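Session log. Operator J.P. requested a structure for one protein chain; no other inputs attached. Running the standard single-chain path with C-alpha cell output.
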Amino acid sequence: MTTHTPIEISPHIAQRLQEEQVVWLTTVSADGTPQPNPVWFIWKDGTFVTYTRPYSAKVKNMLRNNRVSINLQGAELLGGDVVIFTGAAEVTFNPALPMPEYQYKYAEAIQAFGFEVPGYFDAYSAEIRMTPDKVRVVK
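Structure written below.
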C-alpha cells in the first residue's frame, strides 16, 4: 500500500463526509470514457471505503486504471458546494471483515434491498479503498 500525505479538509467537508449517504465514484472505461456511479461509503482515517460486486464494470476499470475521483453531491438548487477528491483506488477481493461502521451506517438500506447484512457482503465482496491525494471545492 502506498503511503500518502493526508489532505487537509475543512470542518464543513469533514461533517459532510460523516453525514452524506451517497458519493459519486468515477472510473475510466477501456475507451477512456468517464464512468460515474453512485456508491455508499465510509470515510475513515482519510480514506473512502466502499463495497461492490467483484465483477462490476467499476472494478474492471480500476484494475486497468486505478486513478479515480469521488465527488460529494452539490447544493440542490445552485449546484455549488461540490467537493471532488482524486486519488488511486485499491481493490481487495473478499476482505477478511467488512467495516463495522459501513455495516452499521447502511444496515437499514441493505435490508431494504432484500439482503441480510452477511448476505450483502457475500454479493458485494470487493472492497474499494481510495485515499485522496487532491481535493477541489467548487463553490
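Operator note: The chain has one domain: 11-138.
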